[in-house]
């Protein structure tokens, strides 16, 4: 896809959790249906199972962002449950990750790159986007530390991940790396030489780390 469905390129993107989650879920289920030639009744069963899981996990909704993050995460669990007997564990994990990461990947990467290319200060634009998403898209289900927040560094450490908590509670922690992999869709848009800053994330909770470092750092001044 080449259409900037999230409106990132304009540089004034504000997360809309309901819209964004619906876009992601529609693309997720359509990718599974087409890539694996799944019958419509199976993808329908996945959506029905997602609804059942949402009802069973209602107590995890701590704020409005959590409501939508719960929808998103439990869609992965529902699809995984129904794919397991058809594909086996490893192939089912790979299928869920591909369906979550790939459909809107070009859209997100292109929109993020355009935003950075046209911003007067690409570092500041990315920091403002990160802070907006922390407030509007992540909410209280996540716990953040900010060891650095100045004109040259924005270092955010995720100490508690709602996605991981939901997956653990539903017996599918092996799906957390799929959530981590989704971030590559915007990370890969950052070109340090072009945009004047770099991004570092050396580990994640989903891959066994104690936290997820999202560290944005301006390039060292020349000379």
Quick gist of this model?
The chain has 223 residues and is α+β, with helices and mostly antiparallel strands.
Low-pLDDT parts are none
- CATH T-level topology: H-NOX domain
Highest-level CATH class: Alpha Beta
3D shape: globular
Biggest sheet, strands in spatial order? 1-2-4-3
Strand % is 5-15%
| Helix-strand category | alpha+beta
Helix content: 55-70%
Radius of gyration: 18 Å
What this model shows, in words?
The chain has one domain (17-218): H-NOX domain. It has ten helices and four strands; from the N terminus they run ααααααββααααββ. Helix 2 packs across helix 3 (64-87) and helix 5 (105-118) crosses helix 6. By secondary structure, the chain is α+β, with helices and mostly antiparallel strands. The protein has helices at 17-35, 40-56, 64-87, 89-101, 105-118, 122-138, 162-169, 176-182, 184-187, 192-195; strands spanning 143-149, 153-160, 197-200, 212-218. Strands 1-2-4-3 form a four-stranded antiparallel β-sheet.
